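User: I'm putting together a teaching handout on how multi-component assemblies are represented. Below are the sequence lines for each component of a complex, exactly as they appear in our records. Could you produce the 3D structure of the whole assembly as C-alpha cells, so the students can see both representations side by side? Please keep the chain order the same as the input.
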Amino acid sequence: VNSCCTTASARPAVEYADLALYGVTHTQLKDMLRREEERRLCEETQQRMLMEGDASYVPIVEEIQAQVSREFGLDPELGTMLLRCAESFARSDAERAEIIGLSLYRRHNRCVDGDLAVGSPAPVLKQALHLPDEGLTPVHLFDHLRRAAVPQLSHQNGAGSLPLVLFAGSWS
Amino acid sequence: MNDMNALVERYHGSALFAFVYILEAHAVDEWPVRCTNADLRQHKSLSDRADAAKRLVAEYPLHPMLHLLLDNEANEFNTTYASWPFRYWVVQDGVVRVKMMPEGDKVTLTALQDWCAANLSS
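Assistant: Of course. Below is the structure of the complete assembly, with chains in the same order as your input.
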C-alpha cells in the first residue's frame, strides 16, 4: 500500500523557520512547489506510475523532488527537505495556507492520527452507515455486524462480546 | 485484499469483520496516482460511494464474512475513526484494542495478525 501518511498539517521541529538560512527565497520555494506539482501531474509521470506499478509511487516522487531541486540549483537533499517542510517556512498563517494550497499532497491530505488510541472507549457513530445495496440501506455499525454474525455463530452465546475488526479504505 | 481475506477466513469464527468504504485516497480529481489503477473521482454522494465500492469488490472480491459498509455522507466513520487513506481497528467490549499505524512508508497487517494470533482461536 502506498504511503501517503505524511500528515499535511504536521509541523517540523522548527516552526516558521528562516528560509534565508538556506539561501532560498519564498518566491523560489513556491516556484519549486509549483514545478513539483506540474511534474507529479504530467502525463509522463502518471504513465510511469501505471507502467511501474504500485511500489513505484514513492521512488518516483523522490526522483521528482530531487530533479526539481537540481533545476533550482539546490542540492537534492536540501531541496527535498525544503519541499517536504515548505509550510514551516511560511511567515504568516495566510502564507502557510497559500503554501498548503500549492501541493496536492498537502491540500488533499486527510491523514490524521485522530484522538483515539488503544485503550480509548470506541465511539458509537451518531448516524448510520449504509449497505451497498440498491436502497443504500442504513445500518448501525456494531448492531449490524452482530446481527449479521448471529447465524454463523449460533453455537456461541451471542456475538455481543466478539471483537470487531474494522478495515477502512477505498479502492484508490 | 488477499491478506485481509485470509485473515477473515482464519478467524471469522471468533471475531466480526467489516470493511468500511471511505473517501477515495487518490481520486483523479484530487490526488491522482495512476498506479492504483482506479480512475475514480471523489464521491459527491452516497451513490458515488456505492458505485466505487461495487467496482472494488468486482475487482477484488471480499470474503463473505467481511461485511462491506459505506461511510455515510457526513464521512462520520472516517472523522471519528481517523482512517483515511487506510486503517484497521479492533474494538472489543467497547474499547479500542488495536489501531493500525503506518510502518515507515508502508501499511501492513502485521499488528492485526499478531493480535489475532494472541487473542483469537482460529
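A couple of points students might notice: The helical segments of chain B are 2-11, 46-59, 76-81, 110-119. Chain B has a mean pLDDT of 92.
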